[in-house]
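User: Modeling request: complex.
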Amino acid sequence: MSALAFDDVSITLGRRRILSGVSLAIEPGEFVGIMGPNGAGKTTMLRAALGLIPVSGGRISVLGAAPRRGNAAIGYVPQSRRVAAQIGITGTELLLSAHGGERWGLPLPSSDDRAAVAAALARVGATDLARRPVAELSGGERQRLFVAQALVGAPKLLLLDEPLISLDPAHQRAIVELVRAVSRELNAAVLFSAHEINPLLRAVDKVLYLGGGQAAIGTVDEVINEAVLSDLYRTEVRVIRAEGRIFVIAEDGSLDGHEHDHDHDHDHHEPEHAGS
Amino acid sequence: MGLFDYEFMRNAFAAATIVAIVAGAIGYFLVLRGETFAGHALSHVGFSGATGAVLLGISPLVGLVAFTIAAALGISLVGEKAHRDVAIGLVLTVSLGLGLLFLHFYTAYAGMATNLLFGNVLGISQQTVWVLLGMAVVTLAGLAFISRPLLFASLQPELAEARGIATGRLSALFMVIVALATAQAIQIVGVLLVFALMVAPAATALRLTHRVATGVALAIGFAVGIAWISLLLAYFTDWPTSFWITALGGLAYALSRLPAWLSSRRTTA
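Assistant: Request completed. Predicted assembly structure:
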């Protein structure tokens, strides 16, 4: 049974068709990096797997069942966390508020709740930083906390939406390695969206490129080559490998992300030097 | 004669205590969710509700509750935060305008406007104390029932949604509870000064602790403390109670910011 399977899935948001006829399967324990420019449907895909967005065609199956909100087998790290920077309560309190947070009644955690949260924090080495107010943590520390949160209850599928945004390279590496390690430990499949492949290169089993409503999935070598990506993006794509890194450049600039990423400009200019 | 030999003083303390407990607890979540402006507007809607009710010969409290709840549902429908501030601001001014119009037609008792706008805790009857107690029980029971998902959805809305919480409906439910709390607070501090009792203690509490339970307890404690000290000061100075509540609320909040302000000055110096 696949951890996540898309069978000829189409998704339409308003009048925009985000995915059209996408099929793919992700097996337990696999680490899949989702790539693609802004608006290609990375977040939409994750939200559809969570049961937050209906499909307009085809079928999604999460661990053998239809997607449904509140699926405890999924650990989720959403992208937009604008509130996080203002949260004055401690990390532990934040995780406790989320654990079983869908139940009615007073937010009084049981000793089992506390144990589950403590175990997740210990697993990612966040026990000490969770004692501090979330607002005082650095971006990397906060991300570690959210990964811990996604692990509460030992999920079988981890969905992480752009967890590397606004982290420096060292912290990016730490988060990727952390997710890779816990995924092995729990045999959990991971869908990790990012707008740049290099931080994920050593961790991924497969990459999933999204563009023009289509998807290309496979190993790094199978997907990140000029034939596959040029076909997917319907423009001439160049793939340059240098010093253990991969640079993907679309001639028409359609693959350029616009996120605030420290590596971004770097990636843009380096190929010229590396190629010469 | 001692303070508590006067029935109006006993009623005032009872009413202020009940309302302060409600205001502190509700206020904590209001500040946490960044919806204090909505709470402020709800109380203004109460003004047109109360004056309208008096005009129709009904109890002002009934009009107040009806209007604030209706406005709470209206505010929840507007949804999106960016549009919200404008919508809320307009509802607020239109309500005050309506209230003014109702007062224009109702000329029998001029003091009513001042009481509604600034509160008249010393004029509270024993019957009102019982009504407030009943409302407080309903309000706090409602808050207790939704507090767990509310806390989760306030801190991490996207995740709460993915976990199956209907965040929109929850938010509307909370607004109705805020409306009830506001209607009670108006009895003590009046339409214009609800912010002082509902927001100042909670905002102070949120700055002083990193734990949720402690925060709620502190917010309630500050609200009750401020209400009691204000009543005492009003008794001895003969200045309005509402003035003391706003002054002490502002002072508490300023003091809670003082340490951070001092340390930031030290680092820049």
